[in-house]
Amino acid sequence: MIGTEEKIDRGAVLHIPLSQYAFAESECSLIIRIRAKKKDLSKCLLYYADRVCRKTPIEFQEIPMQVCAEDEYFEYFEAKVESSYSRICYYFKLVKGQEWIYYYADRFTQSLPDFYVDGKLVDGRSEYYQYPFILREEIPDVPNWFKTAVVYNIFPDSFASEKRFLCKEKKIQYLEDGRACRGRLGGTIKGITENLDYIQKMGFTCIYLNPIFVGGEYHKYDVMDYYHIDPCMGTEEEFRELVEELHRRGMKIVIDGVFNHCSWNFFAFEDVIAKGKESRYCKWFYNLEFPVRKPETPDTIPEYTCFAYERKMPKLNTGEQTVQMYFADVGVYWIKEYHVDGWRLDVANEVDRNFWRQFRSAVKKENPEAVLIGEVWENAETWLRGDAFDSVMNYDFRRICREYLTSDAPDAMAAAYQFEQLRLRYPTNIVNGQLNLLDSHDVPRFLSLCRGDTDRWKQACILLMLMPGVPSLFYGDEQGLMGATESEYRQAMIWEEKENFCEFIEKLIRLRKDYIDISTDYRPLWHMIGDGAFAFCRKNKEKEIMVIINAGLDKEIPEFGNGKVLMEKGYGQGVLKENGYLICRTQ
């Protein structure tokens, strides 16, 4: 009789059909995963079959499953099903020593669902796990160009007004109807164009611009007109020249879409204020109380729903069909007329899902290769199923880096486990297209979190550039910008001659381009991870690169040493080495 200590821990087992545990990579390739308690199973087998097989009993094929990842509590087994079947049914056999059990239909059993009726065998194929049909339109993916992109994020007002120069002057421009547009530091579209050589020299292939449409405040998240460039930043013709110059250089551009809310000077909201209940735009906004009034002081909570109680930014009712149609047209307009390559979508998880379905359909019809990036700070699995976004801003990547690299006692193993969880959060194609970041216009600069420790900051940049996902660097990080408050981390770009990290970033991006493509695998080097040391390998059929980071800078790790030990053991030639990290080629 098997002792209790030998029993499979059934409570730890998890499989979710049609999710990151079962997804198609192509019309003839499925990835199937299952979770189990760490070090609990001695073997895990997958059985799959054509779910519409004409034979009875149905014929299954067996595939041994391999551990693809682990965290503190669990192991994750994975198998790739490569077959001509477009309809798949499957089940698992879990083995622990002498014990074994089948797992399907979310239950454990030692029998398969076959039974007899009037002496005839009937198989219970419908009771197995199912992948009903591999529909090519529903295979989760991200435009290939974006998965290989390296993004430079620019806050336009803070970047440049001329070549290697920012005027740092407040601006105010008035529209023909008297509405005012303001700037804080004087950055312009033309200033971005004149500094593309600086951005491209470091190796960036795509720029992402925070809002550039007509807005009242310097940040332009209070949009008054979605069809024109803000006059403080330039003209439509200057924007067209920017896009054309980027494309001439082989680069891409993503712009910011603020569709959750607008300015209280947006035409539709002004119409509601002027006409009250008679306005045709009453349904465009949330929770209006008539007459609609603009609060006189910032401390007054408006009598209409806003973005974060900000009185100047009334929330749009994105569930209203006419709102959906209006902004779908906006999305297509900038793709069609100016040939932008995608949208970053502000406050995306507060917007109606049908809004995003219509927006996506319209944009993708105009350009199937346009990328859609949602601002979702948490787990975005429900938004990445092919009907909303291709990618999201991966703030959890930043959080893991922060917890690991800004700590006085860095825990590399905890970071490694969390990176594993992040890597398994979505299908592999989607993981490779997530927008990883350390900084943005909404968070303190990472160098400030590191208390000015440039070694820790460089280690974070290595993770940013060489881990799975699309790296995005915020303007000025390469110049050592710091800042803990909003005005500080949106401060003026430094163009004066000073010591900077441009050459370091350039080397990292070159390494990424040389060693990492859409087929490159990721593997933690568990035997080298511990205390402050984190190590991983990126490998494809042709090349392999190994990265070792020692955030415990006061400790020497024998396997790390000064790099010589690694090379003597055959790891290859070091290509980038400084205090606390080593990157080397492996043969």
From TrEMBL:
Organism: Lacrimispora sp. BS-2
Similarity annotation: Belongs to the glycosyl hydrolase 13 family.
PANTHER family per record: ALPHA-AMYLASE FAMILY MEMBER, MALTODEXTRIN GLUCOSIDASE
Species classification: Bacteria, Bacillati, Bacillota, Clostridia, Lachnospirales
GO terms for MF: hydrolase activity, hydrolyzing O-glycosyl compounds
GO biological process: carbohydrate metabolic process
Pfam family of the protein (one): Alpha-amylase
Database matches in Gene3D superfamilies: Glycosidases (3.20.20.80), Immunoglobulins (2.60.40.10), Oligo-1,6-glucosidase, Domain 2 (3.90.400.10)
Tagged with keyword Hydrolase: yes
CDD domains in the cross-refs: AmyAc_CMD (cd11338), E_set_CDase_PDE_N (cd02857)
Domain Glycosyl hydrolase family 13 catalytic stretches: 153-512
Nucleotide-binding keyword on record: no
Key words of the record: Glycosidase, Hydrolase
InterPro entries: GH, GH13_cat_dom, Glyco_hydro_13_lg-like_dom, Ig-like_fold, Ig_E-set, O16G_dom_2
Full protein name: Glycoside hydrolase family 13 protein
